[in-house]
Automatic annotation (TrEMBL):
Name of the featured protein: Class I SAM-dependent methyltransferase
GO biological process annotation, one example: methylation
InterPro entries (UniProt xref): 23S_rRNA_MeTrnsfrase_RlmA (IPR052939), Methyltransf_11 (IPR013216), SAM-dependent_MTases_sf (IPR029063)
Keyword set includes Metal-binding: no
Top-level taxon in the UniProt lineage: Bacteria
Species this chain originates from: Microbacterium aurugineum
Length: 251
C-alpha cells in the first residue's frame, strides 16, 4: 500500500536536510550522474597539491571522499549546521573548516592556495578565486548549470524565462577570463531526474532553498497535493539538471 499524502508530507517535512548527502532520497528520487566522476578527479588533484581550499563544502561529504589531502587543506562553509557537520567529518582528516559567509572577500591572503575547488557552489566570486590562487594554481569545480530542475521549480513558481539563462557555462567561462583566469577545460551534460513521491519534492525544496525561495509545506500545500496526484496518476515526475565541469588556471 502506498503512503498517504499526509504521511508523505510529514516524511519530507521532518527529514534531516543538513549536509549535501542526498542518501535520504534512495528509493524516492533518482538523478543521473555526470560521466566524468568529479569526486575521483578531485581526489587526484588534491593528491598533487601543496595547499588546497574547498569553497562552500556543505557538510564536507564530497571532499571527505579524497584519498589524501595536501599539507595545508582548508574548507569554507556558511550554514552553521553544515559547518558543524563538516568539522566532525573533515577535522580527523586534517582539513580545517572555516565558517565564512560566502561573500567576498575570502578570509585568506593573496596567493595562498595552488588548488581551489568547489562542488555546486551557490555563488561564484571569480575575482576572489583568482586572488587566492598562486600563479599557475588552478580552480577545479563542478557547477550546477542553467535551468537545472526547472520543471519542478516552474511547477511551483510558474514560467521563469529570464532565470533559465542563469548559470550558463559560457557566461561563467567569460567571467573567469574577466577575472584573469585561463579556462583550460569546460564540459557540460544534461541529466534526467525522476521524483517518485511528494516526500522527495518536499525534501529537495527544503534542502535546496534557492529553487523555490520561501518554500514551506504550508504555503505550497495545494501545489504539493497537485504534484502528489500527478505522480499517482502518471508515474514519476521527470525533470532535468545540467552540470558543467570547469577548470581554470591563474597564469
Amino acid at each position: 500500500m502506498t503512503d498517504s499524502f499526509e504521511a508523505l508530507i510529514e516524511a519530507g517535512r521532518t527529514a534531516d536536510v543538513t549536509g549535501w548527502d542526498f542518501g535520504w532520497l534512495d528509493g524516492r528520487a533518482t538523478e543521473e550522474r555526470p560521466p566524468w566522476g568529479y569526486a575521483r578527479l578531485l581526489s587526484e588533484r588534491l593528491g598533487g597539491a601543496s595547499a588546497s581550499l574547498d569553497i562552500q563544502t556543505g557538510g564536507g561529504e564530497v571532499l571527505a571522499e579524497a584519498a589524501a589531502f595536501p599539507p595545508a587543506a582548508v574548507a569554507t562553509e556558511s550554514w552553521p549546521p553544515n559547518v558543524r557537520r563538516a568539522t566532525r567529518l573533515l577535522h580527523p582528516r586534517g582539513v580545517v573548516v572555516v565558517a565564512d559567509p560566502d561573500e567576498p572577500p575570502l578570509p585568506f591572503g593573496d596567493e595562498a592556495f595552488d588548488l581551489v575547488t568547489s562542488r555546486h557552489p551557490a555563488t561564484i566570486w571569480w575575482s576572489e578565486i583568482a586572488r587566492v590562487l598562486t600563479p599557475g594554481g588552478t580552480y577545479f569545480a563542478q557547477h550546477v548549470g542553467r535551468a537545472s530542475a526547472f520543471e519542478l521549480i516552474e511547477f511551483f513558481l510558474g514560467p521563469q524565462p529570464e532565470a533559465r539563462r542563469g548559470r550558463h557555462p559560457d557566461d561563467e567561462a567569460d567571467a573567469a577570463r574577466a577575472a584573469g583566469l585561463e579556462v583550460i577545460d569546460l564540459r557540460t551534460v544534461r541529466l534526467r531526474i525522476e521524483i517518485h513521491d511528494v516526500a522527495a519534492a518536499v525534501y529537495l525544496l527544503r534542502k535546496v532553498i534557492w529553487w523555490v525561495p520561501g518554500f514551506t509545506v504550508e504555503n505550497s500545500l495545494d501545489r504539493l497535493r497537485d504534484l502528489h496526484d500527478r505522480i499517482q496518476a502518471d508515474g514519476p515526475f521527470v525533470a532535468h539538471s545540467t552540470r558543467h565541469l570547469i577548470e581554470a588556471r591563474r597564469p
